[in-house]
Design brief:
By secondary structure, the protein is α/β, with parallel strands linked by helices. Helices cover 38% and strands 16% of the residues. Strand 7 (209-212) and strand 8 form a beta hairpin. Helix 3 (80-99) packs across helix 10 (247-260) and helix 14 packs parallel to helix 17 (465-478). The chain is globular, with a radius of gyration of 25 Å.
Length: 650
C-alpha cells in the first residue's frame, strides 16, 4: 500500500474566524513576492510588470471515452464539463492578466497563462478537431487538449503538446469510462515533465471521492484514482483530485500553486502547495460550494474538505468566455444544409429524477442547483452572449429542460421569441444589447435554433394535455427545432424499475406514454431524437426483442428522427451498481483493456463494466438487430459483419 496516512485539514468547513497572525503572514508573503517581482523587472510600480515575467503555462484536457477502431461513435460536442469546471479559474486568470500584479487581483503575482480570449474573428472561424485547436496558438483554445478518441495518434499529439507548452500544471476532466485514458495522459505528461503538477476532476472524482463529515473521513470507492494508486493498480501520476462543486475549489488550488511556485516559475512541489493551502485556511480565506480537494504528497493524502456558501449557477462565469464554440450538430441544419455552429448550455446541474442507473441524478450529484433570481432573463442574456460568439444553435444539456418546470419553460420561450422578433438590436433588453452589437449577431439571433431534453411522463401524465400542447407550441415558436427524449426501454417489465416512469398507471403503460408524448411533439412540428438503454433491471432477450420491435414501429410511424442504442454501463455511485454487486469490481484503471467488438459500437461500453443482465451475445444481438430494424436513423455505424461472423453471432 502506498498511502500511509490521510490528514484532514478542516479550515474550509468552518466560519472565517481569521487568525490575525496568519493573515499578516499571508499578506507579508504576497507583498514580498510583489516587491521582488517589481525589482526583477526594474519597474517603479507593480502594474508595470510584464505578463511574460509573471505568467506560467498550463494545459487542460478532456479524457476521451473511446479508442478508434472502425465503426466507432464519437461525440461531436464541445468539452463543456471541462469548460464549466475551468470557468472560475480562467475568469480569475483573465482578470489578473488585465489588472496586472497587485494585492487586489485574483493572482497577486504569478498567474496561469490561459492565453488570450478568442477574438470575434477567431470565434467565427473556429472548427472542431485537434488540428484546428493547434492552429489557435496564443488563444485560450490552444491550452485545451480535446481528443475524441484515445489511440496512438492522440498519444503522440499529447506528447507534442506537452513539449510545446511545457506546462507547470496539467488539468484533466474525466468521467468513469475515460478514467483509464486520463491516467494514460498523466503518465505521458509526467514522462515528459516530471515536475508538472497533475490535477484530476470531473464526474469520476465526484462519484468516487467524498467526505464523511461526521467521521472526518475521506471515502474512496474502489475505482477512485487515489485508491487505485494506493493499492498499485495505477501509477502515482496524479498530484491533486477535486470532487463536488469544484469551480471555486479549483480556483483556490490554482492560486495556491501560483503562490507556492518560486518567481523563476519552476514547478511547485506538492508539499509547498499544501502549506499554502494551510496558510489560506488559517488566514480566513473561504470559498463557495461543497467540495473536496485532496493532495497526494509521497505517502500522505492531505484532504481539504470545503463547505462554503451556496452559490447560484447563473453567477458562475460563462464557460465559453475563454473558449470558442466549435461543435456543429447535424440536427440543426442551416439553409444551405450544413450543420449549425452549436453552443452547449445548462440552467441546472442535475436531474430531479432518481433513476438507479443514472449518474446525473441529484442523489448522485449531491443536490439540485438551478439558475436563480430571474432565471429566464439570465438565460436569455447567456443565449445572446453565445450568439455574439458565433452560435447559430444552442442545445440545452440539462437532463430535463428547466428541470421540468412548465412556468419557467413558458417564461423563457416568451422572452426568446420576443427577442428574436424585436425588430432590431436596439429594441432588445439592455442586458442583451451589450452582446448583439452588429448585423451578424442580429441575423444569428433571429435565425437561432435550439434543442433540449424532455421525458415521456413530463408530456403525458404530469400535466393536462392542453398544457402540454401549449408548452410544445411555445417551444416551437421560440425556435426549438429538436427535442431529445430518453425512451430507455419499451418493456413494462423493465420500466417498472425506472424512476422516470413516475405514474405507473395500468391503463397507460410506459410504451403508450412514449408514443403519446411523441405524437404530441410531432403535432407541434418538432423533430425528436431518442436514446434507448439496454441492460436495465429485468432485461431479458425477450424484453430486448420487444424494445427493438416497438422502437422500430415508432420509426415506421415517423415519430423519431434518431435513435441511439446504448448499453448500461455501471457508474460508481449509482444504486444499480451496488445492487448488482459491482461497486468494488469496476475496472476503470487498466490501460490495456480489451476494447473490442461489440463493445466499441456503443458509447462508454467496455468489457467488465457493462450490465450483468447482458451476455456478450446479447450485445452483438442488440448491435445487429437495432441496425437492421431501425435503419438509417440509428445513431451509430452499420454492423461489422465480418467481426460478427468471427464472433459466431451470424
Amino acid at each position: 500500500m502506498l498511502i500511509r496516512q490521510t490528514v484532514v485539514h478542516d479550515y474550509f468547513r468552518t466560519a472565517a474566524d481569521m487568525a490575525v497572525d496568519s493573515a499578516r503572514e499571508l499578506s507579508h508573503l504576497r507583498d514580498s513576492r510583489i516587491a521582488e517581482l517589481v525589482a526583477r523587472e526594474g519597474c517603479s510600480r507593480p502594474d508595470e510588470v510584464s505578463w511574460r515575467a509573471r505568467s506560467f503555462p498550463v494545459l487542460a484536457a478532456l479524457a476521451p471515452v473511446m479508442t478508434s477502431p472502425e465503426g466507432e461513435i464519437t461525440y461531436p460536442g464541445d468539452p463543456m464539463c471541462l469548460y464549466a469546471a475551468l470557468s472560475v479559474p480562467v475568469d480569475s486568470a483573465l482578470r489578473s492578466a488585465r489588472l496586472g500584479v497587485g494585492r487586489d487581483t485574483p493572482f497577486s503575482d504569478l498567474c496561469p497563462d490561459w492565453g488570450r480570449p478568442p477574438t470575434k474573428r477567431h470565434r467565427l472561424a473556429a472548427e472542431h478537431g485537434l488540428p484546428a485547436q493547434r492552429a489557435s496558438a496564443g488563444t485560450s483554445d490552444a491550452t485545451v487538449f480535446d481528443p475524441r478518441v484515445w489511440d496512438a495518434e492522440a498519444r503522440a499529439a499529447l506528447r507534442a503538446e506537452v513539449r510545446r507548452h511545457r506546462p507547470r500544471v496539467f488539468l484533466v476532466s474525466t468521467v468513469s469510462p475515460g478514467h483509464r485514458y486520463a491516467l494514460d495522459m498523466a503518465r505521458i505528461v509526467k514522462d515528459e515533465m516530471p515536475g508538472c503538477l497533475v490535477v484530476f476532476g470531473g464526474r469520476h472524482m465526484d462519484e468516487t471521492m467524498t467526505y464523511a463529515a461526521a467521521k472526518r473521513t475521506v471515502v474512496l470507492e474502489y475505482s477512485s484514482t487515489l485508491r487505485a494508486i494506493d493499492d498499485g493498480r495505477a501509477d502515482a501520476v496524479v498530484d491533486f483530485c477535486v470532487s463536488g462543486e469544484g469551480h471555486f475549489a479549483l480556483d483556490l488550488l490554482m492560486k495556491a500553486i501560483a503562490l507556492a511556485m518560486d518567481l523563476d516559475r519552476t514547478p511547485a512541489e506538492v508539499s509547498d502547495v499544501v502549506r499554502v493551502l494551510e496558510s489560506f485556511g488559517a488566514a480566513g480565506v473561504r470559498v463557495p460550494g461543497n467540495s473536496l480537494l485532496c493532495a497526494l504528497d509521497a505517502t500522505t493524502v492531505h484532504a481539504f474538505p470545503i463547505l462554503g456558501e451556496k452559490f447560484d449557477l447563473a453567477e458562475l462565469p460563462s464557460p465559453y468566455q475563454g473558449f470558442a464554440i466549435r461543435s456543429r450538430f447535424p440536427v440543426f441544419p442551416l439553409p444551405d444544409g450544413t450543420p449549425a455552429r452549436t453552443a452547449h448550455m445548462t440552467v441546472s446541474n442535475a436531474c430531479p429524477y432518481h433513476c438507479d442507473f443514472c449518474s446525473e441524478s441529484a442523489l448522485v450529484v449531491g443536490g439540485l442547483k438551478r439558475f436563480r433570481g430571474s432565471p429566464a432573463e439570465t438565460a436569455l442574456e447567456r443565449i445572446c452572449e453565445y450568439v455574439s460568439y458565433g452560435a447559430q444553435a444552442v442545445f440545452f444539456d440539462d437532463s430535463i429542460f428547466w428541470t421540468g418546470s412548465f412556468p419557467l419553460m413558458r417564461e423563457f420561450c416568451a422572452l426568446l421569441r420576443a427577442a428574436r422578433h424585436a425588430g432590431g438590436p436596439e429594441k432588445l433588453p439592455e442586458a442583451c444589447r451589450r452582446w448583439i452589437t452588429d448585423e451578424g449577431d442580429w441575423d444569428r439571433l433571429r435565425g437561432l435554433q435550439f434543442g433540449c431534453q424532455v421525458t415521456a411522463d413530463l408530456l403525458t401524465t404530469l400535466h393536462k394535455e392542453q398544457e402540454v400542447r401549449e408548452v410544445l407550441e411555445a417551444l416551437r415558436e421560440a425556435g426549438c427545432s429538436y427535442l431529445y427524449m430518453g425512451i430507455e426501454s419499451m418493456s413494462t417489465e423493465v420500466m417498472q424499475h425506472v424512476h422516470k416512469n413516475i405514474r405507473r398507471i395500468t391503463e397507460f403503460p410506459w410504451k403508450a406514454k412514449v408514443r403519446t408524448a411523441l405524437e404530441r411533439i410531432r403535432a407541434a412540428g418538432i423533430p425528436v431524437g431518442s436514446s434507448v438503454l439496454f441492460g436495465l433491471e429485468g432485461e431479458t432477450r425477450a424484453t430486448i426483442e420487444e424494445t427493438v420491435r416497438e422502437v422500430g414501429e415508432l420509426v415506421d410511424s415517423d415519430l423519431i428522427m434518431l435513435a441511439s442504442p446504448n448499453i448500461l454501463t455501471y457508474h460508481p455511485a449509482t444504486k444499480i451498481t451496488r445492487a448488482h454487486g459491482m461497486h468494488d469490481k469496476l475496472d476503470y484503471h487498466s490501460p490495456d483493456v480489451d476494447n473490442r467488438p461489440p463493445y466499441i459500437f456503443f458509447e462508454e461500453a467496455f468489457p467488465g463494466v457493462v450490465s450483468r443482465r447482458l451476455t456478450e451475445d446479447d450485445i452483438w444481438f442488440i448491435h445487429a438487430e437495432t441496425a437492421k430494424r431501425w435503419g438509417a436513423i440509428r445513431n451509430s455505424a452499420e454492423p461489422d459483419v465480418r467481426a460478427m461472423e468471427q464472433a459466431g453471432t451470424v
